[in-house]
Design brief:
The protein is of the alpha/beta class and 212 residues long. The chain folds into 2 domains: 128 residues, Resolvase, N-terminal catalytic domain (Rossmann fold, 3-Layer(aba) Sandwich); 47 residues, Arc Repressor Mutant, subunit A (Orthogonal Bundle). The protein is built from 8 helices and 5 strands; from the N terminus they run βαβαβαββααααα. β3, α3 and β4 form a beta-alpha-beta unit.
């Protein structure tokens, strides 16, 4: 039987990319036979077995296979989910390896002390993943609350146009020019001129926040 080395990735945001995670693993010397990935999935809200591709791991992995992950947080951000998943794979005879720190978790040893150390490390990393997720959520909530309480301090992205430009854009639209023609005439993007045309209230609020 040919044993497989499967790389699993969870890509939860637009800033993260699958290619980067795979390249990082290969650059670190990991051999990868197959890549399985979930995109746009939260590690907090969705257990590994509940994700479309994460669920495939439970069906696909066999005794002797190797599961490679960038870090344990790719499996999840919940303590119980991460520990249950890793211990399940170990019981199956699957070796779990992390790209970061090159850690290995397997069921090779039968020594109770070594097993206890392994399980304690799995538990510690899972707890850390959950703690980091909770800290991030708290920081995001604090930022949102601060922005809501002080819009002058957090005015959002500065508009690419000023008040004079909004007047010109509206005049050109009133003359019957199309979106592209208006954009070329005033030197703005199509998205900007459409925003000026379709969201006058929001545009006015943005100009006021920035004192424009």
């Amino acid at each position: 039987m040919n044993l497989a080395a499967i790389f699993y990735a969870r890509v939860s945001t637009t800033e993260q990319t699958l290619d980067h995670q795979v390249k990082q693993a290969r650059d670190a010397g990991f051999h990868i036979d197959e890549v399985i990935s979930d995109h746009g999935v939260s590690g907090v809200k969705h257990r590994l077995i509940e994700r479309p591709e994460g669920r495939r791991l439970y069906d696909k992995l066999r005794h002797g296979d190797e599961l490679i992950i960038r870090w344990v947080d790719r499996l999840g951000r919940d303590y119980n989910d991460v520990t249950d998943a890793i211990r399940h794979f170990i019981r199956m005879g699957v070796t779990v390896r992390t790209v970061i720190s090159n850690m290995t978790f397997d069921g090779v040893t039968n020594d109770p002390v070594q097993m206890a150390v392994r399980d304690a490390m799995v538990a510690f990393l899972a707890a850390t993943a959950q703690a980091q997720a909770e800290a991030t959520k708290t920081a995001q909530r604090a930022g949102i609350d601060a922005a809501m309480n002080d819009e002058r301090k957090y005015p959002g992205r500065k508009p690419s146009f000023d008040r004079q430009a909004t007047i010109e854009v509206r005049n050109l639209f009133n003359k019957g020019l199309g979106t592209s023609a208006v954009a070329n005439e005033v030197g703005l993007s199509r998205q900007a001129v459409l925003r000026i045309r379709d969201d006058p209230k929001g545009v006015e609020q943005a100009l006021q926040r920035w004192g424009m």
